[in-house]
């Protein structure tokens, strides 16, 4: 989708559909919409008075206006109450608008930028949220369909109408940033939608090679032999049951001074998780093609910081493997020696994500990081604890956790902190090794993070468990059914905020 920014009167813009965003219980239309209402003879006001349009979040009313404006139609979309307004409401409203535009087969639409409360009154942030919402709401994956009827319902362009010519540059900045973040999320959704017979470890390497062509990015890929030399027993152990060899991908973006310590991102990249010898139930196992969401999000984040030209250094690490049963597969009771030198008793081969992440985190400590963030579809316990709304966050550094919390609020991909107390390690004690890879049913999200904490040393570190948020069972404003890419914008927003010193 081509997103552009123009200034000028909304009443004269030529488009298939003009989008106006309104608040619930708003007595009068905002100053940016009043000229439209006046041109329509007070029609928008009449709709409010009659209750046909109340402004509830994501409510829509479509008007055919018979040549009274440059636009063919006007779409009203509700933002909910002014008092509780958030940027995420803007995203959802724009996602709703895009779906409605596609439904009527509109090729282009324009949108008036709404007035917002002072708490979020920054034009670039509002424009960013609008652009993100449009791209997220417009996303579809149809690569393996032979019926392309739906592809004809394509919105080709959207114009954001800046309040004035003086504000156009600010709106353009936000829109471009939003387009980068939206495209990053759609990239992750694509990777996770591909079936596991296509998105193999080798395909992830190919995607990394493509990203390495972006500005200031270098790539290194470690093969099985190199990993053996290093002693990556966790990653090798998880991948040894599959005919697909594991890989360890290192993407380095150098946008800051050479002396600046990098932010290191580590993403769980299991291209298919059968559970290994501890085989998963067959119901919904097909969703396990998305067990590489964390790694895909790290790829997308590194690509985004390059496109945004952020003045910082970022390194993305992807331990990539396929977890399959087989004659060579790791067995329950096996002991693995990790990159850090610690030994782990594998009591459940379906707790494989923490094994590959442990090697990824240990490698990260060798890079003299400013901080380390890992992101993973790690535990079903995250769904039990938090449902499918919040990302579980654990870590060892209060400042980093606070920054991640702020990025979550900015991006709409919110995090919720869980405790990481030493007492939880008691559940991980092994009779035969330094630790075991499962800690029992109680506190499963916490014990998984506690396991990871033993491989990061004293470096500032945050763990993000996206297992409950990475898949949507139904379609909504900014999600289609299936992989959501949730966590992508959180990572990139954190990096933007850090680069901007906020």
Structure description:
The chain has 502 residues and is an alpha/beta fold. It folds into 2 domains: 2-162, Leucine Aminopeptidase, subunit E, domain 1, CATH 3.40.220; 189-499, Aminopeptidase (3-Layer(aba) Sandwich). Helix content is 33%, strand content 21%. The chain has 14 helices and 20 strands. The strands form 4 sheets. Strands 7, 8, 9, 10, 11, 14, 15, 16 and 18 form a 9-stranded mixed β-sheet that branches. A 6-stranded mixed β-sheet has the order 1-6-5-2-4-3, covered by helices on one side. Helix 4 (123-138) links the parallel strand 5 (108-112) and strand 6. Helix 3 packs across helix 4 (123-138) and helix 6 (201-211) packs parallel to helix 9. The protein is elongated and about 80 Å long.
Sum this structure up briefly:
The chain has 14 helices and 20 strands.
From the alpha-carbon coordinates, what is the Rg to the nearest angstrom?
24 Å
Query: What would you give as the CATH superfamily of the largest domain?
Result: Zn peptidases
Give the biggest sheet. 9 strands, mixed
Low-confidence stretches: none
Give the number of domains: 2
**How helix-rich are the residues, as a percent range?**
25-40%
CATH architecture type of the largest domain: 3-Layer(aba) Sandwich
What is the number of helices?
14
Beta strand %: 15-25%
What is the CATH level 1 assignment of the largest domain? Alpha Beta
Helix and strand composition category: alpha/beta
Quote the CATH topology of the largest domain.
Answer: Aminopeptidase
* Global morphology: elongated
């Amino acid at each position: 989708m081509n997103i552009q920014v123009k200034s000028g009167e909304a009443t004269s813009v030529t488009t298939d559909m003009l989008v106006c965003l309104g608040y619930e219980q708003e007595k009068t239309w905002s100053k940016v919409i009043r000229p439209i209402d006046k041109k329509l003879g007070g029609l928008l006001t009449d709709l409010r008075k009659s209750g046909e349009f109340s402004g509830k979040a994501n409510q829509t009313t479509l008007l055919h206006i018979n040549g009274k404006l440059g636009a063919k139609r006007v779409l009203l979309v509700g933002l909910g109450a002014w008092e509780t307004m958030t940027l995420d409401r803007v995203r959802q409203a724009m996602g709703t608008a895009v779906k409605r535009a596609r439904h009527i087969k509109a090729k282009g639409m324009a949108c008036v930028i709404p007035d917002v409360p002072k708490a979020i009154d920054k034009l670039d942030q509002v424009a960013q949220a609008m652009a993100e919402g449009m791209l997220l709401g417009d996303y579809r994956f149809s690569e393996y369909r032979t019926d392309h009827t739906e592809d004809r319902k394509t919105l080709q362009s959207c114009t954001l109408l800046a309040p004035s010519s003086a504000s156009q540059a600010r709106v353009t900045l936000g829109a471009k940033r939003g387009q980068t973040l939206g495209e990053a999320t759609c990239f992750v959704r694509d990777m996770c939608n591909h079936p596991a017979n296509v998105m193999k470890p080798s395909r992830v390497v190919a995607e990394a090679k493509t990203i390495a062509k972006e500005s200031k990015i270098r790539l290194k890929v470690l093969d099985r032999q190199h990993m053996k030399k290093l002693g990556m027993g966790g990653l090798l152990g998880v991948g040894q049951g599959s005919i697909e060899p594991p890989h360890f991908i290192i993407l380095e973006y150098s946008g800051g001074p050479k002396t600046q310590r990098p932010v290191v991102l580590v993403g769980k990249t299991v291209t298919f998780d059968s559970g290994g010898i501890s085989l998963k139930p067959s119901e919904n196992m097909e969703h396990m093609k998305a067990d590489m969401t964390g790694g895909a999000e790290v790829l997308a984040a590194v690509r985004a910081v390059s496109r945004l030209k952020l003045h910082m250094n970022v390194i993305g690490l992807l331990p990539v493997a396929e977890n399959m049963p087989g004659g060579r597969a790791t067995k329950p009771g096996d002991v693995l020696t990790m990159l850090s030198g610690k030994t782990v008793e594998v009591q459940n081969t379906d707790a494989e994500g923490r094994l590959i992440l442990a090697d990824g985190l240990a490698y990260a400590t060798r890079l003299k990081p400013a901080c380390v963030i890992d992101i993973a579809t790690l535990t079903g316990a995250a769904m039990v604890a938090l449902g499918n709304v919040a990302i579980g966050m654990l870590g060892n550094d209060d400042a980093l956790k606070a920054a991640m919390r702020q990025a979550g609020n900015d991006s709409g991909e919110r995090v919720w902190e869980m405790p990481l107390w030493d007492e939880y390690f008691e559940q991980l004690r092994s009779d035969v090794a330094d630790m075991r890879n499962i800690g029992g049913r109680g506190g499963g999200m916490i014990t998984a993070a506690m396991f990871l904490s033993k491989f990061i040393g004293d470096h500032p570190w945050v763990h993000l468990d996206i297992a409950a948020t990475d898949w949507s069972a139904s379609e909504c404003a900014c999600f289609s059914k299936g992989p959501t890419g949730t966590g992508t914008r959180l990572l990139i927003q954190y990096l933007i905020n850090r680069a901007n010193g906020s």
